Amino acid sequence: MTDSNAVDAAIDAGADALGFVFCEQSPRNLVPEDAARLAASIPRNVKKVAVMMHPSAVLWERVQKNFRPQVLQTDAEDFSYLNVKADIEKWPVLREGTMPQCVPEKFVYEGRRSGYGEVVDWNVAAKLARRGQMILAGGLSTENVQAAIQLVSPFGVDVSSAVESRPGVKDADKIRAFVAGAKTA
Asked: Against a cut of 0.85, is the pTM above it?
């Protein structure tokens, strides 16, 4: 989420969680203070997710202090060096091509690169989904989300680039259509 129209559209559509990206390489990158302003109107039952990728400990502390997320979503190995408060949920990202021995209780299954719309192998994802509460990401769109849910049976789904009118700018109609498709499945 990078603007209030997208936040409002996602809330109105019935999204269960909203992600705010804190990663300089992303066209969706926000500073924690701007994200906090955008998230101020989010109802408590909608999770505020800090989406990161190999953040510095300094950036994470700034996000924790100023944005105050309910969830941290970042690559699994990042949790080894980040100090995450006990009241913040951890959603480690497991990337396609890596099959961990131990799967976390709740996790995000994503392609090798985040934010590029790369579809993951749903057959592999379906096997992993039986081992924990998977949030399926990677190439999901309005056109394929129902098929993905039917095949994989994930706990949840995640979308970003497929609901944008251009990189970093969400489209309210695409958000509504994606959420409706996911909820229908």
From this structure: yes
